Amino acid sequence: MATYRGIHGKAIKSLSTDPSAETDAGQIWYNTASDTFKSIVSLTAWTSGSQLSTAREGAAGFGLQTAAVICGGETPPVTNATEEYNGSGWTAGGTLNTARYRVAGCGTLTAGIVFGGAPVPPAATGAATETYNGTAWTTSPYTLNTPRNSLAGAGSSTSCLAMGGGPGYKNDSEEFDGEGWASTPNLNTAKHSSMAAGANAEGVISFGGYTSSPPTSETNATESWNGSSWTTVNNMNTGRYGGYGAGPQTAGIVTGGIVGPGTMQNKTETYDGTSWTETADLATSRGRLTSAGTTTAALAASGQTPSLTTATEEFNVSANAVTAAAWASGGALGTARLGSSSFGIQTSGVVAGGRVGPPGSTTATEEYNGATWGPGGALNTARQYSAGVGVLTAGLAFGGNVPPAGVVKTEEYNGTAWTQNPSPSGDMGTGRRALAGFGTQGSAVAAGGEPYSTATEDYNGSAWTAGNTLTTGRQYFAGAGASGSSGVVFGGTTPSVTAATEELTGESWTAGGPLITARGQNAGCGTQTAALAYGGYTTTAVSSTEGYDGTAWSTRPSMGSARYDVNGFGTQELAVGAGGDPLTAATEEFTGETSSINIEDFTTS
């Protein structure tokens, strides 16, 4: 009988703990602690990503899973908006010079190209070409020889191929070399809304679409381009149109699409240079979507479901099991409240005071252990719409009001009891509510507040002193920062809701990247280069969440319920939102995307 050693030339290892590196994938070992044979097994799956800011269909997409672009499309109306994906969320990019949809694109985040499409109606086709440098779009002097929409494209910004499209059913093919478009031999089959993949203009595959025979029938036909001619190769398993392709010629991927008059597809297939293989399905069936990446790390976003969607999904083939970022329900507060002093980490947090509804503010404190809330020591001064910073065993509460008077008193928390700073210099210079704070018990900042204040104050552990003023006076906003010399504030009302962000470095405030969604009465946590903004109010309560990297905000998964004046604390990857308005005791926990080695047990018989 064959043995493992005989087949592989080595024995099965006996280990007391499991390996944790992807490089160990495929190995088999015996775990002496659990008395089981185990191995690291590769997984293939789509997982949820952060939503687009703008739902759309018929947009162009290109790049990698961690550096992707989507641009144009119909929202409606036709848009020129660009968004960029950094592997965690979407942020605004430079706007196209020509708004269009059913447009083709290819390349990378810093060297992309789009061409064709349907501009703003009543124009049905376009020939314009634009290139992208990761910041701005430039209109090329070179236009397609055949204006068209619903075409396919593949390659790079200096070596790409455009093929097929409409109106009608086109088989025209043309190549761009960075210095103009040149006609090439036609596709064997004229088709509309087809897909393509390829790294450059010398190696492309064209697949799917719908043809005129029989009328508007989806096809599974695939053609391969070798730089001089098209050759029919093996068909896809599922005929479709309006899907999206990505990857090189010998390692392509197609996902989504439409069958018949409007049946949206979730099927995904990969191409190895010879044949197509079905793999993991999208969670959300959709057509007219965009895609980017490779056969082992792809991205799908936007499209029709049939309604327009902002949904993003990530495709991975990896020994790591990926868990998507998400908000989940946590333990409920003992007392529904909003506008509290809140601070700490996800497994060890505090909310103190706040508005609890008539009769108003409270001194009550609650502590969170990551699962449930329990009582803490009571504040000495009841307050609402106050600020808080620090950790469970070294926290700070300051500002707020007991209507109608503003509170100047500062209190410190040691994990058991609150102590009011007895020194006159321990009082804030100006009592105010709806302010933002960040830092630690020994190094904190109080910024802004009612009425639309630009004032800031610095706390050194014993006394407050005046700091440099904010550029924009605001109230009902949030802050994040690790110390009193490094932080960021964002959102609020000025009196209209604002997207403005300001960063403090040392003693100077400077403008940061604006929030994607202007909002007031929002929550925030984290640090200057890794902040989280969530909830708030625009014209209604919102649930949207954004992450900040020190330069720009990008989308994150939304909270389960829309609310404002949420009590927030934690980090960008592990945050808590408790209470809020409408007055609630509900708690939600945010966990960023995580991955872990996929280890499976083997059974013997």
Main pleated sheet: 4 strands, mixed
How much helical structure, as a percent, in the residues? under 10%
Report the mean per-residue pLDDT as an integer: 95
Beta strand count: 62
* Cross-sheet strand order for the largest sheet: 1-2-3-62
Return the CATH topology of the largest domain.
Answer: Neuraminidase
Care to describe what's here?
- With 605 residues, the protein is mainly beta.
- It folds into three domains: 37 residues, no CATH class; 280 residues, Kelch-type beta propeller (Neuraminidase, 6 Propeller), CATH 2.120.10; 265 residues, 6 Propeller (Neuraminidase).
- It contains one helix and 62 strands.
- The strands form 18 sheets. A four-stranded mixed sheet has the order 1-2-3-62, with no helix packed on it.
- A hairpin with a 4-residue loop joins strand 38 and strand 39.
- The longest helix has 5 residues.
- The radius of gyration is 28 Å and the shape is globular.
- The two termini are 15 Å apart.
- The model has no long low-confidence stretch (mean pLDDT 95).
